[in-house]
Amino acid sequence: MSAARSAGEAAARAPQPPPTATRGTAVIELRDVSQWYGNVVAVNDVSFDLEPGITGLLGPNGAGKSTLLHLMAGFLRPSAGTVLAFGEPTWRHPELYRRVGLVQEREAVYRSLSGWDFVRLNARLHGVADARAATARAIERVDLGAAAHRATGTYSKGMKQRIKIAAAIVHDPELLLLDEPFSGADPRQRLQMMEMLRAMASEGRTILFSSHILEEMERLGERVLVIVAGRLAASGDFRAIRRLMTDRPHTFAIRSSDDRVLARALLAETAVRGVELGDGRLVVRTDDFGRFVTAAPRVARDAAVTITELYPLDESLESVFEYLVSR
Amino acid sequence: MTWLIVSLTLRQLLGQRRTWLLVLLALAPVLIAVIFRLTTDGVRDPREFVADGVMSNVMINLVLPLAALIFGTAALGQEFEDGTAPYLFAKPLARWRIAVAKVLAAWMGTAGVVGASVLATGVIALVGGTMDLIVPAFMVAAVLGALAYAALFVCLSVLFERALVIGLIYVFVWEALITSLAPGAAYLSVRAYTLGVARALADTPATIFSAQLGGAASFGALALVVLLTLGYAIRRLGSLEIARRA
After folding, report:
1. Which of A233, B9, B68, B218 is deepest in the core (most CB within 10 A)?
2. What ipTM describes this predicted complex?
3. Bridge partners of B9?
4. In this complex, do B86 and A104 lie within 8 Å of one another by their Cβ atoms?
5. Measured between alpha carbons, how far is B109 from A1 in angstroms, rounded to an integer?
6. What are the sequence ranges of the domains in chain B?
7. What's residue A324's pLDDT?
8. CATH number at residue A260
């Protein structure tokens, strides 16, 4: 008993990397998973493995990201297929929560509790041996020490996100699932949280976060799963997927001092596939986003044309996803 | 661990506004007792006023089921409504433990409010006269009735999102209306079991206060309600997909 206690205290002082999470091991496995609500298919035949490190789950709103996270968290019974965490089915397996932390999207916290009490409650519900030390460590990790003794009901949205993360990591989980963790956080808090997740991943943990914002993926997601309309549209290294996204055909609208002259000049560029004149603007299609955006100002200057406006016509995230799905 | 969930739930229940409306409701019988003491003409037997009047008609028919309904449906239902349920369910806790803790919390809240009201009402109305074990009998009956109602309403909150509305229909349509029109319906009424227990424990003459069901049947029926509804709540909670409710 005393040996166990001293081991627990030592662990409380210096968090150790999780023993079982090693690179190359699938922590989460989804095989042919579908989930439907009545006639609505939320997740459609999705398979993937999740390994230690950070993975981003990217997709537009309503794509099925939360449903996937809930399946991985054991909060839904898959309508078809299997969802395993550490080799065990996640559905009806509460013991798995010793190794899993979940940050849900809803802002909900026990409003009357202070941040400290809220995190400590979570530690005690997890049966953490030294709940006080674990609470202090988790609160320090999310940098909320100064506000720890205030009621969570008085917290800003960003602070609530951080206290929710503290509650989810208080038992030192090997797998952390976060649903839209950066929503409501200001840019500084966002960077801080990203830094924290990176540090946790470097300790060998597996972190999956969902987002519908490409830039968040860019900054954090080493690997990315792109989900569109319940289907896995792409998965793998973020940079490769980002390249696919930027190398797709783009369409720009340009307003200038002389659209005809500019159209003729642009057609000479190899990056430009076609131009159209009309509606008081010039619409340009290009295969090469990078080359076009550097070429356009030069071409305009050489042709002595002033560009007054240049904007993409298909930059919405949805159109990017549509393109990925159609490939 | 169970007690941790119980204390958390009690804290949540006491923090909600409707609890304080309930406390006001529980003060109504006390106020009636005070008015009775101040205005009594000495003709009416205080025991009849307390047992048949204020305890049966106000306390057991109204205050007890409403208190249990509010605590019972909120104990778990509020967690789903507020979105705090994942904090409980994403823990290495067996779901039966959560169900038991929620019933215990709803029971303690209900028994506390109603028990205090029974004690204050009975003492104010009867002190100085013949008490006939009326107060202890109704105390025990209210506490046992609170347990059966709490288990029933927690079970409803596992099964339905609109447990409060369904519970209100049970209390006011089934227990109040149907049982008065068709006395046989009392066999499926927690209120009738509660009154049966009070009747069995009080040594008041039947001319002063009577109940539809006998003591043994009432005790047995209350135990059966607790076992069946708690058992069913545990079973259904075990397979509840939290994401569909939270």
Report:
1. B68
2. 0.88
3. none
4. yes
5. 37
6. 2-245
7. 66
8. 3.30.70.100
